[in-house]
User: Fold this.
Amino acid sequence: MIEQYIDAALGNRTADVVLKNGKFVNVFTGEVQSGDIAITGGKIVGIGTYEGEREYDIRGKVAVPGLIDAHVHIESAQLAPEEFARLVMPRGTTTVIADPHEIVNVCGVAGARYMARAAANTPLEVKLMLPSCVPATPFETSGATISGAETEQLLREDLFWGLGEFMNLPGVIGRDAEAMQKLEAARSLGKIVDGHAPGAEGETLDAYIAAGISTDHECTCPEEAEEKATKGLYVHLREGTAARNVAANCRAVTAANLRRFLFCTDDRHAADIRAQGHIDNALRVAVGAGMNPVWAVIAATLNAAECYGLRGKGAIAPGYDADIAVFDDLQNFHCSYTFKRGEAVAMDGMPLFAAGDQYLPDEVRGTVRAGEISPDGFRLRLKGERANVICLEHGSLITGRAVRTVPSEDGDVVLRGTELLKLAVIERHRGTGNIGLGLLEGCGLWGGAIATTVAHDSHNIIVLGDNNADMAAAARELVRIGGGMAVVGRGRTCSLPLEIGGLMSVLPAEEFVARAEELREAAYDLGVSREIDPFMALSFLALPVIPSLKLTDQGLFDVEKFAFCSIDAEER
Amino acid sequence: MIEQYIDAALGNRTADVVLKNGKFVNVFTGEVQSGDIAITGGKIVGIGTYEGEREYDIRGKVAVPGLIDAHVHIESAQLAPEEFARLVMPRGTTTVIADPHEIVNVCGVAGARYMARAAANTPLEVKLMLPSCVPATPFETSGATISGAETEQLLREDLFWGLGEFMNLPGVIGRDAEAMQKLEAARSLGKIVDGHAPGAEGETLDAYIAAGISTDHECTCPEEAEEKATKGLYVHLREGTAARNVAANCRAVTAANLRRFLFCTDDRHAADIRAQGHIDNALRVAVGAGMNPVWAVIAATLNAAECYGLRGKGAIAPGYDADIAVFDDLQNFHCSYTFKRGEAVAMDGMPLFAAGDQYLPDEVRGTVRAGEISPDGFRLRLKGERANVICLEHGSLITGRAVRTVPSEDGDVVLRGTELLKLAVIERHRGTGNIGLGLLEGCGLWGGAIATTVAHDSHNIIVLGDNNADMAAAARELVRIGGGMAVVGRGRTCSLPLEIGGLMSVLPAEEFVARAEELREAAYDLGVSREIDPFMALSFLALPVIPSLKLTDQGLFDVEKFAFCSIDAEER
Assistant:
């Protein structure tokens, strides 16, 4: 094996592949240099003047190391890993550090095994992190639980590169026993732990880092990014669908601290990847915001490789894996070619590898196991006329709260004449029949219901509607199709299955994006405000870690008090 | 364990140790910052305002991460690892990457196990590399052989952090089967391989790197260092006893390529460490030559930790090991304190840990097992009067060569009236009785002999003298004392044992340095030129990889032709 690298480097044998006549970013010197890039046995063997069995003329273009998404929940694209790869590889991405937090909260570790095997059908290199928070909180019913002891066992498997984002900041600071056991396991096995510490600073931040956490992707301003990098955290510059922090946070990068910065997408929908791109998009945004383009490339390649200990990744130099993205320039980052271990896997925006048969084991299908669903289950009985309601805030995952007057009739609220809708979260993993009910203001739907099984982080069924019959029908439709998204109203039912764990579609990206768009239109037709993305808005209303009032299958949750609260408002 | 870090970071418990009122180098930002450094359980837990069980006032001083010697043959100090630690830790060194190439060539893997256990008696952290060239060449008899297959087995042991400097550049380029097996083993186990490629450039260098080699410490000019860093090698800036490259090569360092540079000493004698220092000395030299002091610190700490994958080393930040050197300033680098995992291990130049009982297993003692030694064995029978002789060149490890007329009498050369001395290398590992004989010009000794068992890289007995009787006596004296250095002449015998493998003394550093100095004086008394260090000069005359004419126990060796050559010069 090594012999062939040596022979090819010396020119004693023709290289397998040569990228000729182009330039490349040397991440070790920060320079754009010239030279043929010779590749043999999947590795770069030399840079100079070479001939190859296959040659690619990249005159006028710039090769950079394959881009690395340093933190992504693939599930958020809502595509199978096979389709995700077909979408991101033509954008120059060759490796992702993936935290299968969503599918594992539904299917347990079987979900992670599925992600690994499905990704292995593609040239995309996926390093899986073991989700550290399953369930995300004790205030919801998830499809699986991973204890500290199980974490210790699982981390020993090659399957997991490290421990996924440790969202339980209060658990770290409060030295929660399970949290300690998980962190101790990662420490003793020498595995990296990703962080998630929005707003943490000062001694709290020191404590969080001292606990063994190495990264953070939640900075919302350059000052926060700067403090975190100064204290030695690797800081991910994130450009997702909802959270877009690159333009602001790249201002924290200096020549001296550059090596602590990476890029990631975290949660990014297929539609955005298709329309705007993946890490290439993040680079465009960074350069547009004034970041040195070579610095941006270094952050997205060498830095990510060093942070995660990806030996042989992140550089165009002898001995490195031939993971290479060829861009037209370092301004627009239009990707002409993507190479993975020396094979051309994408050209001019199109993947060169077949979709093939998707890997679809039983474990990730038919995951919607709700109890009986009837319109009567949605009856909301108030003690009085005053209720705590959730207020949707456009353009934010944070919700407001208010106390509103709501009339009742026959043991159920009467919504007609109010600005309110009924919200329900139905447990769908264990058939417990749990149903949490609440009221939402600020959405604008009437004469129907919308529902989805993508409901962070436990991914129960969440339904929003103005009448019990349509709500029940929408929820049942999700049960029927094995999870997904549904719109029911005015005698019409539309739905789009997310067969894989109720989270991801088996469709090709293009078709899926088009059908998701149709479904969104159906929701708008029911009167949902065009200022919000109906299903994305819905999917964050069950997340009990983002302020201020949320709904889980166990009831209405006051995030600030970190406790359940009654829907009945105290009389004042 | 993690709980205590969190508690101490939050100030909920008093830290074990706090360094108060000082400044420190933040290797992540390149800044000199202020703040108390709080340490608990051996780790830095926070930087800010803290109180500790023990407090050190470092007002006016600068703390930096503990210095890392990225490549050292401890044996070259000629002290036991215990004494080496007592010498280097007061200089701010807390970790060394050690290649026990010398002792393993004498004692085999038992030598490496000895180094590890002896070092474990001290707070110095020693990461051992498995020597890759045992023997260094097939043209000499060493005490041990490590094959490719054995390398594969040994590299699986935790004992070895990686594969030691791969000196066999021709073997790599020529795809020697054993070399390939060793490199393949390191590759498949994901272990780092150190390089040694003086002068390699262009395609040869690409091939050497593509073979899986990550570092080089043999650059002799900044252009060479720059090319190597550009191609992704980590480049060690070396300041040893004979080889001193820091002042020249640090000119290759730029803001952009800084992260590829480290510091090392390679071969540095106890006398120089005592008089001038260790990595602290290298930093002084670098800063004296114009290198940014903070860059120099980053190279000697964070960069070395990243290159060798030393998690938790190389920075003063939460979560990092509390390996800290406190210097008076970043110009003179006078070390006030050294901390290892939070314990003060040195203060004002003195170690704070006891010498204790040295670990001295049988395997590394009594290693001088020569065959019978008699004056007659030194008889050098020439076919004619013309001989190929080795010419000592002052201030260089390279030797010249010349053809000289040498009279003979009774089947032996007559040296009286010439500038020549007789040189002999006597096999001393297996009692084969091998003796290689040669002639040396340019040393100036008369009426005696000097000898040592430190003779790179196989460490046979090397003897230089002007008469067979004194040469035999000197060699026998080395056998008697179990290896070391000897001076015999004019009726007097002086010697200094190197009991450990014939390479290292059991004496305390101070006493050893003084006695070595006395012995050197005894050699000068015999007429050896004061322009050379007699024993160091001798120790490199048996190294068949440095041009141009050398002597091994198997005979005179022409390094350019890489073959043995006759001492009888062809008539022209």
